[in-house]
Amino acid sequence: MENKKRTTIHDIAKKLNLNASSVSRALSGNSNVSDATKQLILKTAKELNYRQNSMASNLRKGVNQTIGVIVPRINQNFFSNIIAGIEEVTYQKGYNLIICQSNESYEREVKCVNTLINQHVSCIFLSISADFENNDHLKSIAEHGIKLIQFDRVDDDLDTYKVLSGNEEAAFEVVSHLIEQGYKRIALLEGPQNLNIFRQRKAGYLAALKKYGFPIIEELIRENAWTRELGAKATEDLLGLPEPPDAIFASTSDFAALGVLDVAQIRGIKVPQQLGICGFSNEDFTEITQPTLTTVEQFSNEIGENVANLYFQKVKKVPSDAHNKVINIKPKLIIRNSTLKNS
Amino acid sequence: MENKKRTTIHDIAKKLNLNASSVSRALSGNSNVSDATKQLILKTAKELNYRQNSMASNLRKGVNQTIGVIVPRINQNFFSNIIAGIEEVTYQKGYNLIICQSNESYEREVKCVNTLINQHVSCIFLSISADFENNDHLKSIAEHGIKLIQFDRVDDDLDTYKVLSGNEEAAFEVVSHLIEQGYKRIALLEGPQNLNIFRQRKAGYLAALKKYGFPIIEELIRENAWTRELGAKATEDLLGLPEPPDAIFASTSDFAALGVLDVAQIRGIKVPQQLGICGFSNEDFTEITQPTLTTVEQFSNEIGENVANLYFQKVKKVPSDAHNKVINIKPKLIIRNSTLKNS
DNA sequence: TTCAATAAGGCAATCGATTGCCTAAATTTA
DNA sequence: TAAATTTAGGCAATCGATTGCCTTATTGAA
User: Fold this and answer.
1) Where are the beta strands (DSSP E) in B173-301?
2) Are B219 and B241 in contact (CB under 8 A)?
3) CA-CA distance, B208 to B206, in Å (whole number)?
4) 3-state SS string over A138-152?
5) Nearest nucleotide, CA A19 to C1'
6) Sign, CA torsion A176/A178/A179/A185
7) A39: which residues sit within 8 A by CB, 6+ positions away?
8) What is the rounded distance in angstroms from the CA atom of residue A298 to the CA atom of residue A309?
9) How far is CA B87 from the centre of its chain?
């Protein structure tokens, strides 16, 4: 049933008593083929159901219209929206996407990189995994003549184009907003500090405290609270302090903020009156909770579009220029009820 | 700075005064190479930073360890979870994934298929777009010797392996549950009927009504309500009827159910006492709403895993057998407060 | 010591498309 | 009409890896 043999340009050539080179030229719209034979070739190509073999073509031409994308998890809103944004642009350009997920594992990230190198992709778009160890694998990308664009979670030490979200500014805005709403003891749920994004968010938190002359209270800063459960657990701890916080900034994610809200509801603590809560990323559910959650919109789709456009407009064209350039996608503070103490 | 030339097996051969064939054999772990030279080759391969060119290898071997996936939208939870499930399996097998989104457009779906055919992927996993027109493009997949597995939204006319969610059974269960809770006039928000999944959900709805001897009331069945906004609009209409429904089954999605809930809250209608609401797909937010939403869990991750396993266990091995086989992933009714009138 | 069997590795074709170079025919120009 | 130029299309190498076949060299058996 299955035609194992696919038709090649040689089949077309044989049928028309021509040489494969003419067929190739006709199909690629090249000159040096008369209009009559060109039409004939196109017609028989259609008849024989011919499809170009991209592998052969790419091999010969030494290029590959394929881009590799590595993200920690495909099925996280933030990343799947970035991928959607990337895909929108690359599709227009006729490029293919090979998508890999590192599952937050360094080992697996290395394997993904190796696979993509073997595939000779023309560029890799990467957001590093949570247990990032070192950038040897990223260096080897360049060694094999492959471009690299980092986004969101990046290795600062590496000299590549980067597309970032303004994490520090956003966190600064969040904390400023909390302070202006009258909150006095603001706790921070922070993520793994080997990731730039969490370092930056913490920096923004600290900068805002400093600006307003607030003291830095170490016991109000909690590490590794990035799931709903961990957010809840950290909140239990915080609320058990002799001097508990009156606001919690879940800088890790909206899920952590949800965990905070869970605990507040269980304990009958009024949000935002007794406790202010702010998350990060503007997940869908943040406008459904009671009260609705203040959060930060990161424009993930735009981040993806920018990454892809960066490749086509800069990296692909002027490779030597592709160093240490950073694009910042400015996030936006979305103020909702969970922090509106004053209103 | 960039080493444009990547090392090939010929470079290694030249350096060691060997023939490329020996290098190839050594690297592929083949016999016919002495252990001494094999070690030598592996060592120099590492020194020269050699990476196999998958394109060349695939071309020669006539195979391609790549699978194409086409989904309506990458950034929809249901689909991104399926992709994550697929990726988990294919990654283990050393296969790559090329992911495309049709954006619910038939034209674009056709283009995606063509791209994947050109890429010589070994199999395509597909869920059809909402404005599906005909299956010509799907037929051409087989004509080019490429396997096809359909999942979730499938073309029934086509003779392929399929992985489905038990939509009809699930809808039947939903409506039975509503009836058992004492709801008397149950409305249906339905999706485009050219998609099998929505036809099946409607069939389940009708079957349940029939079983319980309930009449089919056409004015309670509303088409194309699959977003939050459209769900809200349909609800406004329904509640404006002389005899409004006392339950609404948003078979299209949880988002539509959310729209229903919006309207109920605006109008001060008590859920579940005055109006029962049930959604579909078990989105994260359904357990956050007030009241929590009854819905259907589809186990999207498992669907993805099944699709991929199907390929490796059946389709790849016994191609001739790959016809008209259907795997059903049984969904589960998640009963929450929005339909618990009795309790 | 001789012959057979095995091991090690080279040669060259192949996968399918592309492209530089060359030739023959057709067309233009002088 | 002859020379110059353009056009059409063939030839063969190439991209990098693989593999069937063949040739030596080596080992073992008789």
Assistant:
1) 186-189, 221-222, 247-250, 276-278, 295-297
2) yes
3) 5
4) HHHHHHCCCEEEEEC
5) D10
6) negative
7) none
8) 18
9) 12
* Chain segment A253-289, per-residue pLDDT in tens: 999 999 999 999 999 999 999 999 999 999 989 999 9
Asked whether residue B32, judged by its CB, lies under 7 Å from any atom of the DNA or RNA strand C, the reply is: yes
**Lookup: tokens for B338:** 């929005």
In one-letter notation, the amino acid at residue B287 is E
Q: Does A39 have pLDDT greater than 80?
A: yes
Q: Which helix (H) or strand (E) holds B151?
A: strand B147-151
Tokens of A62: 């030494």
According to the 3-state scheme, what is the secondary structure of B23-35?
A: HHHHHCCCCCCCH
Q: Distance between alpha carbon A21 and the CA centroid of its chain, in Å?
A: 43
Cβ distance A73 to B58 less than 8 Å, yes or no, reads no
A128 in Cβ contact with A71 (< 8 Å): no
Å: A36 CA to D6 C1': 18
Residues 6+ apart with CB under 8 A from A242: none
Dihedral of the alpha carbons of B142, B147, B152, B157, in degrees to the nearest 10: 30
B259 burial level (CB within 10 Å; 0-12, 13-18, 19+): buried
Whether the Cβ atoms of residue A157 and residue A320 lie closer than 8 Å to each other? no
Q: What whole-number distance in Å separates Cα of residue B99 and Cα of residue A190?
A: 33
Would you say the C-beta of B39 is within 7 Å of strand C?
A: no
Helix, strand and coil percent figures for chain B, each rounded to 5:
45, 15, 40
- Residue-wise pLDDT for B187-219, tens only, equals 999 999 999 999 999 999 999 999 999 999 999
CA gap A110, B295 in Å, rounded: 39
Extended beta strands in chain A, E state: 66-71, 96-101, 123-126, 147-151, 161-165, 186-189, 221-222, 247-250, 276-278, 295-297, 326-329, 332-334
Contact A49, B52 (CB under 8 A): no
CA of B51 to C1' of C8 (A): 25
Beta carbons of A59 and B59 less than 8 Å apart: yes
DSSP B185: S
Instruction: Tell me the C-alpha distance between B44 and B13, whole Å.
Output: 10
The dihedral sign for the CA sequence B206, B207, B212, B215: positive
B5-59 pLDDT, tens per residue?
Answer: 789 999 999 999 999 999 999 999 877 888 999 999 999 999 999 999 999 999 9
Is it the case that residue A324 has pLDDT exceeding 70?
Answer: no
β-partners of residue B248 are B187, B277
> Which residue, among B115, B323, B290, B109, has the nearest Cα to A55 in the 3D structure?
B115
Cα gap A207→A188, rounded to integer Å: 13
Separation of CA B74 from chain center:
9
Residue with tokens 């299956």: B135
The Cα-based distances of B22 to B33, B44, B245 in angstroms read: 7, 13, 77
Q: Cα separation of A8 and A20, whole Å?
A: 9
Considering only residues 35-64 of protein chain A, which place a Cβ less than 7 A from any atom of strand C?
50, 52-53, 56-57, 59-61
Instruction: State which nucleotides on strand D lie below 7 Å from a protein beta carbon.
Output: 7-12, 14-21
Position of tokens 């190479």? B33
B203-237 burial code (b ≥16 CB/10 A, e <16)? ebbbbbbeeeebeeeeebebbbbbebebbbebbee
Dihedrals phi, psi of A96, to nearest 5 degrees: -100, 155
| The overall pTM is greater than 0.85 | yes
Q: Which of A295, A282, A311, A296 is nearest to A163 (CA)?
A: A311
